[in-house]
Specification:
mainly alpha; 19 helices
Length: 511
């Protein structure tokens, strides 16, 4: 594929995409930005500057935690809580092991005394009773009364005073009750408890299985809560964020800076176009599309340095956005390698209709972990180019054709290795095409029903690009639904400061 033909179409494509975004600017019209949106229930209320107390700051942190958790439950169908033990060779794992061993050893020594000392065991039974009661659903009165009756700590303490505590009988009752209340996945754990004879080890294992059951219960609750959250997530997130904003007025500072940078980029672009256009009226104030500004903001996330903090309104999707960026970087490398190979040894590929799929099968495993600091992209590209040359030569030999000369192979491997260099023309071109596709995707009113045309040079990764693009557009569109009123207030102040000042003055009471 000739590079110069594709490059000539880039400027036209970019202008077309921006024109489409501007023409579909119904979401953030100038009228809506100058209107009083604060009276609407869904619009964020403005907060006057105030001194933040520690309690207010902690409340904001709790709100952010609740917001992040609710968002994750709703958008991530695979989200669940997992029971994780610290490695024993870690500091935390070592300390935990020592403390637990000391506790259970002390319990064992108390029970082995003559007469036995039951005080610590009674406290354990009391804790077990509370855990078992927490598993019950409303209306389970019979089993609730039974648990309270059998694990009555006052009664057990009286029995201990007369040395008549049936500690094995209590443990067996607990195990049988756990068997009735646990999920089927825990049946094997219950069987193992029944096979344990040592009472101290049995109590220790009972607590372990109870921890697993608490995790099961939490995940069951999450599963039942997910449909409700999905139906009400937009209002819930917006309300929660408004609470954060009221307690921490600076909670939109990074978001404001993010939008401001996009406006400055757009003004700079308009200025460059005006200076290159003959007869342009430099005195006229440039008209900027709010939708175009916001879409440019979202496009910045695909090249974001995730060592920096994201805008506050994007924090709930930070992991997903980072994964998409890493996937796009991987796809960019694959497209670059394919384009270079096509241009240098296109004739050899003609007889390999599945070359694109073979290239992906070679590249994807070698490009795993590109985001890690220890990843050596140069080494990975070298391995990819070696395998490409090997496959091409094998295919040529099978078709009775001469293999690639050493000079051609070295040139091919050198061109692929140069992808890592800054301002590499092939890498810049593919990156530009990817950005254009994503920009066009955001400009579509209904991206689910159709996809924009795939730019030249990206056909090898079309399926993967459409999947990533769909995931990206879903995140963006949902974010706009939740935080649209907050963005509207920021954009109104930044784009139309005169109207904002005039409105504030008109609302100021006079003496």
């Amino acid at each position: 594929m000739p590079l110069n033909d594709e490059q000539n179409s880039d400027s036209e494509s970019s202008r077309l995409s921006e024109s489409t975004a501007a023409s579909s600017d119904s979401e953030y019209s100038r009228q809506s930005f100058n209107s009083d949106s604060s009276s609407k229930p869904s619009s964020p209320a403005s907060s006057p500057p105030k001194v933040i107390t520690f309690d207010e700051l902690m409340a904001a942190a709790r709100n952010l935690t609740d917001l992040t958790l609710a968002h994750e439950i709703a958008v991530n169908a695979n989200f669940c809580l997992k029971h994780e033990d610290f490695p024993q060779n870690s500091l935390v794992g070592t300390v935990k092991h020592i403390v637990h061993k000391a506790f259970w050893d002390h319990l064992e020594s108390e029970l082995n005394e003559d007469p036995p000392e039951y005080e610590h065991a009674i406290k354990l039974f009391e804790e077990i009773k509370e855990i078992l009661l927490s598993f019950l659903t409303p209306g389970a009165n019979r089993i609730q009364n039974q648990i309270c009756e059998v694990l009555d700590t006052d009664l057990i303490r009286q029995q201990a005073e007369h040395n008549t505590v049936d500690i094995h009988g209590l443990a067996n009752y607990i195990i049988n009750t756990m068997g009735k209340l646990c999920a089927p996945i825990r049946d094997n754990d219950i069987k193992q408890l029944k096979a344990t004879d040592n009472i101290v080890e049995l109590l220790r294992q009972i607590f372990h299985v109870l921890d697993l059951m608490k995790m099961d219960m939490a995940n069951y609750t999450i599963q039942n809560l997910r449909p409700y959250l999905q139906r009400n997530l937009v209002d819930y997130e917006r309300t929660k964020f408004q609470e954060i904003l009221e307690e921490t007025p600076s909670a939109l500072d990074l978001t404001t800076e993010w939008i401001k940078e996009s406006i400055e980029d757009e003004l700079s672009s308009i200025s460059d176009e005006s200076s290159s256009s003959s007869g342009a009226d430099s005195s006229s104030k440039p008209i900027i599309s709010p939708t175009l500004v916001l879409n440019n903001c979202y496009l910045k996330l695909l090249q974001w340095d995730y060592h920096k903090t994201l805008p506050e309104t994007l924090l709930t999707d930070e992991v997903r956005l980072q994964e998409l960026r890493e996937k796009l970087n991987q796809l960019k490398i694959i497209a670059c390698v394919c384009l270079i190979t096509n241009n240098m040894v296109g004739a050899a590929i003609v007889g390999m209709p599945d070359f694109a799929e073979q290239l992906k099968r070679i590249s994807v495993p070698l490009l795993e972990g590109m985001n890690k600091k220890t990843f050596d992209l140069k080494e990975a590209l070298n391995a990819i180019s070696v395998q490409i040359c090997s496959k091409l030569n094998r295919s040529l030999t099978e078709r009775g054709l001469p293999t690639l000369s050493e000079e051609v192979q070295n040139n091919l491997m050198g061109q692929i290795a140069h992808i890592v260099e800054e301002n590499n023309p092939i890498s810049s071109l593919i990156d530009k095409r990817i950005q254009f596709f994503m920009r066009s995707l955001l400009a579509l009113p209904h991206f689910q029903k159709c996809m924009p045309a795939m730019p030249g040079g990206l056909s090898v990764i079309q399926t993967e690009m459409e999947l990533v693009g769909s995931q990206y557009a879903s995140i963006v569109n949902f974010n706009k639904q939740v935080y649209g009123p907050f963005y509207a207030n920021i954009l109104r102040k930044l784009l139309f400061p005169e109207e904002s000042v005039g409105k504030a003055e008109s609302e100021t009471p006079t003496n």
